[in-house]
Specification:
The chain has helices spanning about 80-90, 100-120, 130-145, 145-150, 155-165, 170-180, 215-220, 225-245, 250-265, 285-295, 300-305, 320-330, 335-350, 355-370, 380-405, 405-430, 435-445, 470-485, 535-550, 575-590, 605-630, 640-650, 660-670, 675-680, 685-690; strands at about 10, 100, 190-195, 200-205, 285, 315, 450-455, 510, 515-520, 595, 600, 655. By secondary structure, the chain is α+β, with helices and mostly antiparallel strands. The structure holds zinc ion.
């Protein structure tokens, strides 16, 4: 969360293991896969169809599943339904989830492996390595609910008292800094990032923040659902204050104060679509400009000293207007009200490690109301995720030893090579791009670095102290370790070998500012990559993911960065205009798709991901054709290789979601819903229509197909 304004685009949102429905607290980043908006008046999902208590088995998920098909539906009418229909019917959402897909089966399998690793590491044994001690004791402390109940709120007592004792507004800066260090998202966000215009340098960054709801739009929208969600949020904040010991009336008044302050912050914040434009969030300035002109009411000198970077001279203030807004908010809000706001965020951020009544109330709002999940996930799954969050590369070492061989890396690299050749061919063949821009695009493609599986050098956690029996302390020290690790990069050269996701993560990403693609070991398994299956299926599944990440270098956001990752325009005006025209076609196409009652996809928010999905599947298909050229391949399960390619792609996305989750996804997630990641793409592909003999007039054949890459 301290990595700000960084252009990292993934194949699904945020780290998969963090994708939980019990909280959007800082331990699990906000607005992720699986968080959703409330619809209190919608009838609740029937409870307990599937037990959340079923323990997953550690077995692979088939990469191609003939039993998932719905052969009563024509592939030309609804391809997603054809490829996934039976699976969707047979796999209702478990009560502790808001989404359930074939993707999640792989996550569950990873969780079971990680649990096994952690339970072994948790056994007190003098022969444990330093890494085993840290991950084992962190996990054991998190699992020890008895001790956590007994301690009550004692572990945060000193922090609560410190906030209560603040005697004037000049002390706000110190307190905000102390809260940032332990993961409370107050007032704004602060961290470090690569300078958009100088890819060699890491600079400090200050950005909007300070909300308890997933995004600023939650505070501003005036439709019935949004009004209802805000009411439920205020109720939740009130209950948390009651749990801290306030009377009902006093807690209600405090909750309203929190809502007022956060609404004010929201009004001064940028919306998600605007934030996709790097130019709108790049305002590098001298520190005095922020401290003296924009935000003089906040003691920036004190803040920077408290977060241990007193010496910085420049920083990117991503949204100057936001900080101007904070300035007047500080002046117009009483110290008493600031204390209320800070207290709320402290207890909110620590809720996952407090006694059950806090955990349950946190889940009631962030899980049930926002995402539609019915039951809290079993504690062990939550604790595995927290270890992954705070000690990801320590746990990841053990995971890699267990799951990822040399062969996995070699086969993936070979496939990446095939995809890169296909994208090169695609660029050379484009009829809308001039040779000058093509040459630059090809140069950028050649410069992409491929990172596969896990880091070459593991992160050193030796400075992070993990104490058995101190669950909150471990979590806070973990957050603090990461916060300072990010700030320690300021002024240093950019580390191009670092990973943004942990090895067990079922996800992949492209980084515009480093021009690299990254595939954690977690995704290089069935159903994405299945070494027992034919190339056609693997190119459709993991091949399309690789193509997706490569294409991100050339989507609406990625195209604005050059070979080295600098924000620099390398397009001729004519080519840029041609690009925009084609991108608009995609934005319009996806804006027509309905996600839930009265909710359509936001074609502009999802433009980058849709561009990557469309380009990715096309170049994966080109790569497959090169791979099988000249070979006469038999049908398997009665499907041609071409058909298996498209089914393999579609089946990696089979997923059920609650209506709440679908709504939140549409409002905050840059990815389209799985159904449209499939149907939205194949509609644009004559290659698909040929493979399944579809004809014009059928739903999977778009009259004027969109194509960027
Ligand atoms: Zn993506």
């Amino acid at each position: 969360m301290h990595r700000l304004s960084r252009f990292v685009v993934s194949v699904v949102s945020v780290a998969a293991l963090a994708a939980q429905s019990d909280s959007v607290a800082p331990k699990q980043e906000p607005a992720q896969k699986g968080t959703a908006k409330a619809r209190a008046h919608r009838k609740p999902r029937p409870k307990k169809k599937v037990s959340a208590k079923t323990e997953p088995e550690i077995k692979p998920i088939p990469g191609f599943d003939i039993t998932a098909l719905d052969t009563d539906t024509s592939p030309c009418v609804d391809f997603y339904q054809f490829a996934c229909g039976s699976w969707l019917k047979k796999n209702p959402i478990p009560s502790d989830r808001s989404r359930w897909g074939r993707f999640d089966l792989l996550e569950e399998r990873n969780l079971a492996i990680l649990r096994d690793i952690l339970e072994k590491a948790a056994i007190k044994d003098p022969k444990r390595s330093a890494v085993e001690q840290k991950i084992g004791d962190y996990y054991a402390s998190c699992m020890d609910e008895g001790a956590i109940e007994k301690q009550g709120t004692a572990p945060i007592k000193a922090q609560l008292e410190r906030i209560a004792a603040l005697s004037d507004k000049n002390a706000l800066a110190d307190e905000v800094a102390r809260l940032h260090r332990v993961g409370a998202n107050v007032l704004f966000s602060f961290g470090s990032g690569q300078d958009f215009k100088n890819s060699n340098e890491v600079i400090a960054q200050a950005d909007q923040g300070g909300f308890g709801l997933p995004d600023r739009d939650y505070y501003l929208k005036q439709d019935e659902d949004s009004i209802q969600t805000r009411k439920q949020y205020v109720d939740h904040v009130q209950k948390m204050f009651e749990l801290l010991g306030d009377s009902t009336d006093r807690a209600a008044a405090k909750a309203q104060t929190v809502m007022d302050i956060e609404s004010d912050l929201a009004k001064r914040s940028l919306d998600l679509v605007s934030r996709r434009d790097p130019a709108k969030i790049y305002h590098k300035m001298r520190r005095e400009e922020l401290a003296a002109s924009l935000n003089p009411s906040f003691e920036w000198t004190k803040y920077l000293a408290e977060v241990a970077v007193p010496w910085i001279e420049n920083l990117n203030v991503s949204e100057p207007e936001f900080f101007k807004g904070i300035d007047s908010l500080i002046n117009t809000t009483s110290l008493e009200n600031w204390k209320t706001y800070l207290t709320w965020h402290l207890v909110h951020s620590q809720a996952p490690f407090l006694p059950a009544k806090f955990v349950n109330e946190n889940f009631n709002f962030y899980g049930k109301t926002l995402t539609g999940a019915q039951e809290l996930r079993p504690r062990w799954k939550r604790c595995v995720s927290y270890v992954d969050g705070d000690l990801g590369e320590a746990l990841g070492q053990k995971y890699v030893e267990r799951t990822f061989g040399v062969e996995g890396k070699e086969r993936t690299l070979a496939m990446v090579g095939a995809l890169e050749r296909a994208l090169g061919k695609d660029i050379r063949q484009l009829d809308w791009m001039t040779p000058a821009t093509k040459a630059k695009a090809l140069e950028k493609l050649r410069s992409i670095t491929n990172k596969i599986g896990y880091p070459d050098k593991w992160r050193d956690y030796s400075m992070l102290i993990i104490v058995r029996g101190d669950a909150i302390g471990n979590s806070q020290r973990g957050t603090q370790f990461e916060f300072h690790r990010q700030l320690a990069k300021i002024g240093q050269p950019v580390d191009r070998t670092e990973w943004q996701m942990t090895p067990p993560t079922v996800n992949a990403y492209y980084e515009s500012q480093l021009n690299n693609i990254n595939f954690p070991a977690g995704i290089l398994q069935p159903p994405f990559f299945d070494k027992s299956l034919d190339d056609a299926v693997n190119f459709g599944a993991i091949g399309a993911v690789i193509g997706h990440e490569l294409t991100h270098g050339f989507d609406d956001e990625g195209r604005k960065f050059d070979t080295k990752g600098n924000l620099r325009d390398w397009w001729t005006a004519k080519d840029a205009a041609e690009f925009e025209k084609r991108a608009d076609c995609l934005a319009n196409e996806y804006s027509q798709f309905t996600v839930a009652e009265n909710v359509k996809l936001n074609g502009k928010l999802t433009l980058g991901e849709n561009t990557a999905d469309n380009g990715g599947l096309r170049i994966a298909y080109m790569a497959l054709l090169d791979e099988i050229a000249g070979k006469s391949l038999p049908k398997i399960d009665e499907f041609t290789p071409e058909q298996r390619f498209f089914i393999g792609y579609s089946q990696s996305w089979c997923e059920n979601a609650t209506e709440e989750a679908a709504r939140l996804h549409a409002l905050t997630n840059p990815h389209s819903e799985p159904k449209y990641r499939v149907n939205g793409v194949v509609q644009n592909m004559p290659e698909f229509q040929k493979a399944f003999s579809c004809s014009l007039g059928q739903p999977m054949v778009r009259r004027s197909p969109c194509r960027v890459w």
